[in-house]
């Protein structure tokens, strides 16, 4: 078994004028990378939504899937909603498998096993996490007068993103990797007559970080 543990630091990713400052880190631990390319197989990326205190955003799941598909045209990424509807009710929040050992239970269901085989599903990737607002400060006042209207003031807020991808191998019925990413950033809203938002792309940075590592894993086959 091949095991690799690495940490990638991406400090100070700044998009001047268009966005605020974002700092992110990516940690990965992967086992048994693909030995063949993914041209004859597919991968599905699903968001965890079984917890009551957060919901892994569907747009984040879609972003990661598009990042992988755009990076390697050989990889067929199954749409999350399409997959969930196809396998209803097996992947609803209350019934979705929480552990890789639950795959054996699923595969004992003939309709599930047949559909997975038809889709040539090689890997299932679970995304778990969310992006949350952390703090805000400042004030802004807007009004309309005889000479026109406008806003004056300054506001700022922070966002933190934490996500983890767990990779399941359908062939071996095993977990073959985990990739986690954190990203934090500060956004600003100065206003002199017209508010000008300077948004820190925290969720997008997290998507790129975790998407790059998943793409590297899935594209490692010969």
Report on this structure.
With 222 residues, this protein is of the alpha/beta class. The chain has helices at 58-71, 80-86, 102-107, 110-119, 202-218, and strands spanning 3-14, 21-31, 42-47, 76-78, 121-145, 148-169, 174-195. The chain has one domain (3-218). The protein has 5 helices and 7 strands; from the N terminus they run βββαβαααβββα. It has a 7-stranded mixed beta sheet with strand order 1-2-7-6-5-3-4. The longest helix has 17 residues, at 202-218.
Describe, in short, the structure shown.
With 222 residues, the chain is an alpha/beta fold. It has helices at 58-71, 80-86, 102-107, 110-119, 202-218, and strands at residues 3-14, 21-31, 42-47, 76-78, 121-145, 148-169, 174-195. Helix content is 24%, strand content 45%.
Helical coverage, percent range: 10-25%
Query: Total number of β-strand segments?
Result: 7
Spatial separation of the terminal alpha carbons: 17 Å
Largest sheet: 7 strands, mixed
Biggest sheet, strands in spatial order? 1-2-7-6-5-3-4
Q: What is the element string, with H for helices and E for strands? A: EEEHEHHHEEEH
Mean pLDDT, as a whole number?
A: 85
Pairing-aware structural class of the strands and helices?
Answer: alpha/beta
Give the domain tally. Answer: 1
Residue stretches low in confidence (pLDDT < 50, at least 5 long) are: 1-18
Q: Strand fraction band?
A: over 45%
Number of helices: 5
Shape: elongated
Radius of gyration: 21 Å
């Amino acid at each position: 078994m091949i095991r690799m543990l690495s940490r990638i630091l991406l400090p100070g990713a700044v998009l001047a004028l268009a966005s605020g400052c974002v700092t992110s880190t990516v940690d990965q631990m992967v086992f048994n990378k693909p030995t063949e390319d993914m041209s004859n197989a597919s991968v599905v990326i699903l968001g965890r939504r079984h917890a009551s205190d957060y919901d892994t955003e569907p747009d984040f799941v879609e972003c990661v899937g598009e990042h992988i598909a755009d990076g390697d045209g050989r990889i067929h990424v199954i749409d999350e909603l399409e997959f969930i509807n196809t396998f209803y009710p097996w992947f609803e929040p209350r019934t979705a498998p929480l552990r890789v050992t639950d795959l054996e239970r699923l595969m004992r269901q003939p309709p599930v096993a047949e559909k997975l085989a038809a889709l040539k599903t090689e890997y299932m990737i679970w995304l778990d996490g969310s992006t949350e607002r952390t703090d805000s400060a400042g004030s802004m006042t807007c009004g309309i007068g005889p000479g026109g209207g406008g806003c004056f003031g300054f506001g700022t807020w922070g966002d933190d993103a934490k996500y983890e991808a767990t990779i399941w191998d359908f062939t071996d019925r095993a977990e073959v990797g985990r990739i986690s990413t954190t990203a934090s950033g500060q956004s600003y809203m100065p206003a002199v007559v017209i508010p000008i938002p300077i948004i820190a792309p925290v969720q997008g940075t997290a998507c790129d970080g975790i998407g790059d590592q998943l793409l590297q894993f899935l594209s490692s086959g010969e």
